[in-house]
Design brief:
Largest sheet: 7 strands, parallel
Distance between the termini: 34 Å
Low-confidence stretches: none
Protein name: NAD-dependent epimerase/dehydratase family protein
Family: Belongs to the NAD(P)-dependent epimerase/dehydratase family.
Order of helices and strands: EHEEHEHHEHEEHEEHEEHEHHH
Oligomer: single chain
Bound molecules: (3R)-3-hydroxy-L-norvaline
Helix content: 40-55%
Mean pLDDT: 97
Shape: globular
Radius of gyration: 19 Å
Organism: Olivibacter ginsenosidimutans
Length: about 300
């Protein structure tokens, strides 16, 4: 069986679909803090990743061969509730790593983020290894989490694998608490209002990835032979970088009357300014054949087509 913890989230929702397709819905156990909006076609458990007793009972019940831990507090919400974000992101991870070792789980997936980079990290083509001084609780919790994943791999032989996702763009779930989520909201409002007021400045360039590519890349990493993987903290990964202005221009190719304006002074601007503008993901390409298939134009078209329905 495969267990997904945090299956209601932006990544969890889509990973659940992909893993059910691959392994059969009866073999994929989804779990989250509350039931999903659409009832799960397979087994579902109410879980709090900080409740180790409840978590252990789920491991006992399903004896998982793989565990995907997607439950986390993202960057913007994390700055409003720093201690809760640290507690959930780190102690949730440690609970899962401990139980994965105890129950001899063969593979664990845990998402990191380009938020592990900070103001002194190289801004363009940020490499796999460099100075990392994240100044958000989300970012520092992901940086510490990466170190814990590497520690459990080296000390206990746990096959835990991780990806530093850039901003993820998708249409299946409502955006939740991130800094890059302007790039999701913009589509909803372009269609519903014909305009959008962006909380990041026009020239804020950030690395992004379309969810379809993120999911395929995650499955690719999880299927790679363990001896191909030389990074056990977390792999840099990206699709393409763009600014709000560039994104708006591409949307205008489909909705010529679309108007984008800007609201400055939002706390998320400082978060975005601390992150890279573009990412070097050559290690993922070399070790496990990573290659994105969507570019900006293809992503914009797919988002608008799906949101229109
Ligand atoms: C956030 N979407 O904005 C997440 C992600 C790189 C950004 O980690 O917090």
């Amino acid at each position: 069986r495969i267990i997904i913890i945090g299956s209601n989230g932006q990544i969890g929702t889509e990973l659940a679909t992909a893993l059910r397709l691959k392994y059969g819905q009866e073999h994929v156990v989804t779990s989250d803090i509350k039931p999903p909006a659409i009832p799960s076609p397979g087994p579902f458990e109410i879980i709090n990743v900080l409740d180790k007793t409840l978590l252990k009972a789920m491991f006992e019940k399903y004896q998982p061969t793989q565990v995907y831990l997607l439950a986390a507090v993202l960057s913007a919400v994390g700055e409003q509730h720093p201690k809760m974000a640290w507690d959930l992101n780190i102690n949730g991870l440690l609970n899962v790593l401990d139980l994965a070792v105890a129950f001899n789980v063969s593979k664990v997936f845990w998402p990191s983020s380009i938020a592990v980079f900070g103001p002194h990290s190289p801004k363009e083509n940020t490499p796999q290894y460099c100075i990392m001084d994240p100044n958000t609780v989300y970012g520092l919790s992901k940086q510490a989490g990466e170190r814990w994943c590497e520690y459990y791999h080296n000390k206990y032989g746990l096959d835990v694998r991780s990806i530093r996702y850039p901003g993820l763009i998708s249409w299946k779930t409502a955006p939740g608490g991130g800094t890059t989520d302007y790039a999701i909201h913009i589509f909803h409002e372009a269609l519903s209002k014909g305009s959008y007021t962006c909380f990041l400045s026009a020239d804020t360039k950030l690395p992004m990835l379309y969810m379809e590519d993120a999911i395929q890349g995650t499955l690719q990493l999880m299927e790679a032979p363990a001896d191909h993987l030389h990074i056990r903290s977390s792999y840099n990964l990206t699709g393409f970088s763009f600014t709000p202005a560039t994104l708006a221009a591409e949307i205008k190719n489909h909705i010529p009357t679309f108007v984008l304006d800007y609201l400055d002074g939002d706390p998320r601007q400082a978060i975005a300014d601390s992150w890279p503008s573009s990412i070097d993901d050559q290690d993922a390409r070399k070790d496990w054949g990573w290659k994105p298939s969507y570019d900006l134009a293809h992503m914009v078209q797919d988002m608008l087509t799906n949101l229109k329905q």
